[in-house]
From TrEMBL:
Protein name as catalogued: BNR/Asp-box repeat protein
Gene3D superfamilies, per the entry: 2.120.10.10
SUPFAM superfamilies: Sialidases (SSF50939)
InterPro entries: Sialidase_sf
Keywords, ordered alphabetically: Signal
Signal peptide (residue range): 1-19
Length: 385
């Protein structure tokens, strides 16, 4: 669609140029959004829910290449499962499979909760632009969970095992069982942080923790990010974004929240390794909506100096936008054409475009992987007064 608009504009300009050879025209700003692109339709050989939990990556370190995206998801293929890597070179309209991240060490497959990350700068002996994939390796009988890290130094074409990050017990979200879940990577200074959900502490049904590494091979002991006094409370599913004033914002779902079951909560901290020392608050939109379950947060530089924060949640096709650095009274619920999905992914693209990618709902019988985008610069948001 981007290409069509540019071609149409240049035909228009050359016609006018023929009639008025001395007139110069500037090409209009070419911003286009994606409407209901299907990345992958699973075959019937896949087990239900077939696909879930999409993740995307914009390759940002290559200068001119501003339109290359990768996508992956939980892929319920015949055993052993793997994380498919699909690539788009046109900003998300067309996708092809370029590789598979397969389990190279456990013999279990890579089953749940993939996460893709591009090194923004040289780190751990790898150059900027190296791609990391973290995910949960789990055997077919779900008897163990293992968050592992893989690396690609060729933009996602080939993958190598790097390290085991965290080991847990049976892959059931039952309090008293001891799995680990849902890794999220973020470079912070000279440390890589991996955030994840942790059921191994006997004092907490589930809590949120992180570990750090300076070489991507060895990982420091877990540090709490969110834990509540009530054993049955289950904070889960960390995602984090950097605010333009240097602070960090994390979202999580909170089973046990007084406002709603699995209400989306957030915390703001100057230091992304000390979220445990700052208070959490519920995300409540100006229309009263409290989104619930599997949130995802990103920040886009669009608009003013604050940019725009965007949050997705399982409960809603809409997104929740905030141009006031997360001020509690300034979350606006904004409709999107992308249907609600479990752990739906957001990605801030250039020109104020927000990419929204889903792979279906829990227990869904006709899940597929789809993506859509909206133009953040065209929406009206609550002001910051
Ligand atoms: C950034 O803005 C947030 C939201 O207003 C605030 O809580 C935080 O303290 C600010 N950080 C800095 C470093 O000023």
């Amino acid at each position: 669609m981007y290409l069509l608009k540019v071609v149409a504009a240049s035909i228009f300009i050359s016609c006018l140029a023929f009639a008025h050879p001395t007139t110069e025209f500037l090409a209009p700003r070419a911003v286009s959004t994606l409407d209901d692109v299907t990345i992958f339709t699973p075959p019937s050989t896949y087990s239900i829910p077939r696909t879930l939990y999409a993740r995307t990556l914009l390759l940002e370190t290559d200068g001119d290449e501003t339109d290359v995206l990768l996508a992956t998801w939980e892929n319920y293929s015949p055993e052993p499962p793997y994380f498919p890597i699909y690539q788009s070179t046109d900003g998300g309209s067309a996708w092809t499979e370029i590789s598979r991240v397969t389990d190279q060490v456990n013999g279990w497959g890579l089953r749940y909760q993939p996460f893709l990350y591009e090194l923004p700068s040289q780190f751990g002996g790898f150059p900027a632009g190296t791609i990391l994939c973290a995910g949960n390796s789990i055997p077919a009988d779900l008897s163990a969970t293992q968050i592992d890290l893989y690396v690609s130094t060729d933009k996602g074409l080939t993958w190598s095992f790097l390290s085991h990050i965290a080991s847990g017990g049976v892959a059931e979200p039952v309090n008293g069982d001891t799995p680990v879940w849902e890794p999220f990577l973020m470079l912070f200074g000279d440390e890589m942080i991996v955030y994840y959900s942790d059921q191994r502490d006997p004092d907490h049904g589930q809590k949120l923790v992180h570990q750090t590494s300076t070489d991507l091979l060895t990982w420091e002991t877990p540090v709490d990010d969110v834990e509540y006094d009530v054993f049955d409370d289950r904070p889960g599913m960390t995602t984090v974004a950097l605010l333009p004033n240097g602070s960090y914002i994390m979202t999580y779902e909170f089973f046990g929240a007084p406002e709603a079951s699995f209400a989306v909560y957030y915390r703001i901290s100057d230091d992304p390794t000390t979220f445990d020392s700052v208070p959490g608050q519920v995300l409540r939109a100006t229309d009263g909506t409290i989104p619930t379950s599997s949130p995802y947060i990103v920040w886009s530089p669009v608009g003013g100096t604050n940019g725009v924060l965007a949050v997705s949640a399982n409960s809603d096709s809409a997104v929740f936008l905030n141009q006031c650095l997360g001020a509690p009274n300034a979350w606006t619920r904004v409709a999107t054409p992308e249907s609600a999905s479990y752990s739906r992914n957001l990605r801030a693209l250039p020109d104020g475009i927000l990419l929204i990618t889903g792979a279906g709902v829990l227990s869904g019988t006709d899940n597929s992987v789809t993506t859509t985008s909206i133009d953040l610069s065209s929406v009206t948001l609550a002001s910051c007064d």
